[in-house]
Amino acid sequence: MNLAVIHGPNLNLLGKREPEIYGKDTIDDINFLINDYCKENNIEVIIEQFNSEGDIVSFIGKEQYDFLIINPAAYTHTSLAIKDAILAVNKPSIEVHLSNIYKREQIRHESLIAPAVLGQISGFGKYSYVLAINYLILTNQ
To answer: What is the C-alpha separation between 123 and 101, in angstroms, rounded?
Structure first.
């Protein structure tokens, strides 16, 4: 099983950026957790972080994975291009968020990505990624 994890824009600033919303974990902390959890469960993982919408779309289109976990960050609410890329490759995908987007500003309550993915996990900090990986494990995707 090859898993791809995409972190969207500004997630490279985790640990410094609004820790009251996103927590104190850095992207390196989160990547360590993901890598460790995947290794324990015999899952090959590629993790990327992109600030550019085009880079995200290009990576999705390469299809070098069997399953996608994506935190599109602010692009969640604005990117038809990312949604269309996910639909085009037709790979099982889960949308994740560190914060509970439904407890935040109204504009963050709508996800353009959600209709293109199997489901959405939000509000559990770095463990949102682990919960998504658990789905992969439990369903033997």
So the answer is: 7
